[in-house]
Amino acid sequence: MSSHVVVLDSTARRATIKTTPGKHLTDVLQEACTKLGVDASQHGLKYKGKELDLSLVFRLSGLTSGAKLELVQLSRSPSVVTVALQLPESEARGAPPNRRLLDKFPSTTTIWLVLRKFEAGVAGGASTRNLTGRGVPSGNEGAGRLYYETPVVQIMERELSSFTDLQKSLAQLGFNNGNVLLRLSFRRTEEPLDEAMVKIEEYFKPFDDVTPKAEEPPAPTEQPPQPDTSNKEEEAQQQPASTSEAPSATEQTLPTAPTSDAPAAEPTEVPTGFSRPITVFSPPSNTTPQSAQTNYNETDYIPSIEHAQAHQRRLNATSRPQRLPTDAEIAAKAAAEEERLAAVTQVDVKVRLPDQSQVVAKFGQEDTGKSLYDFVRNCLAAPFASEKFTITTSLPKTSSGGQPGRNIQNIVPDSDQQLLIKDLAMVGRVLVNFTWDANASPAARQSRELLKPELRTRAQELKVEQPKDITDNSEVSRPKPTSTGDGARGEKRKPGGMPKWLKLPGKK
């Protein structure tokens, strides 16, 4: 017995879909979206204001023939689905007593990717096993050729065995939340194993090659020779401060560090006992901070209309639901970040000491946190070279889960396992702070001459060009309130006079 349902979208367009008792609601949704020209993965069905479970068949959904269903748009953020994989007896080794592996997946995960994660031991916490690349010998042929044994997944009353079916995601099968049980079995095919593996690479390459793509970016390092690259960068950095810099360099520079001192901070000479060119800046001679010498202007703290509009835009942006990135987007972002860091050949690191003296040096791709600590230790005077200290940086903590844009003090590890550019993401010009350890001697903490004498003699003064004060003494003309109507006429009236509109008895 066949029946039909009517699917209505938000614009009152309708699509009539024929159904059978054993037809899944996901197939109804797919046919309706095809007729209406929308994406089925971003829509769902509602009946009388209640969202339908798309994993059910028509006879179990409680719908009647001719029911009118609403086509609604779902959230773009994937939801979490708890998946239980029921293993066959042949795969009971290393599995729980009930032969079920349990884990949680995003609703956008395909059935094939679920099997791959379970067989790799990434999901379920079990040992590795072979679920997608099995081969069985043929007893009729003497050559003993292996034939492919395809995985067969049974979900409720639906069986998935072909490569096309295994490409479907949990959401496409109607599982957007809750729990789902996958019963796994194997079926021998007449296709040789080597031919089946070629087809698997063609069908599931987008899912299996997500992680290898992140290993390719180091290739850009094999480019022009090192001397030519360094010369180009030195010429670019010697240009005036008005020259626009790359976004990656400006992100690592602290807001308090002026750009006008960039040409003076270029390390050019290699002192005796050092392996890299350095530049030394002496402590400031004035005890008053530079920020305290700026003239106070009260109008600088009055928000403008542009500030209010920008604040309103930020509030509107944070009030909207944000779509979580998919696994492919996360992998692509990580690959792009690795490629960006691999293209950086060197970085300028400025070390600020407790006595306010500063040392600038260049570090390359092969330099580690230990290289930075050894360099700073070599710059200290002999009495303080054996004291313990730490180096901190204020790089934006975005890759480790912090809020983007927040500068958090991170300790640079004194280890040869952490690269400055690749692992610590130091790019462009980076300012690091020198801090004495808690066990350092009082003499080291109170000393105002931490650097070696030969470095102090070659120290230069850090000059910061300040913009000229431009005071706008012009008064803002404010329009005076103008009154209209009778009020304006009343101001021109003589004192004691009567208005024209006032009519008293006995007067014409």
UniProtKB/TrEMBL annotation:
Any GO CC annotation of this UniProt entry: nucleus
Regions of compositional bias (Pro residues) in chain numbering: 217-227
Domain named UBX: residues: 342-434
Annotated segments matching region Disordered: 209-295, 456-508
Protein name: UBX domain protein
UniProt-listed PANTHER family: TETHER CONTAINING UBX DOMAIN FOR GLUT4 (PTHR46467:SF1)
UniProt xrefs under CDD domains: Ubl_ASPSCR1_like, UBX, UBX1_UBXN9
GO biological process: intracellular protein transport
Sequence ranges of Basic and acidic residues compositional bias: 456-478
Annotated organism of origin: Aspergillus vadensis (strain CBS 113365 / IMI 142717 / IBT 24658)
Record field: compositional bias (Polar residues): 237-259, 282-295
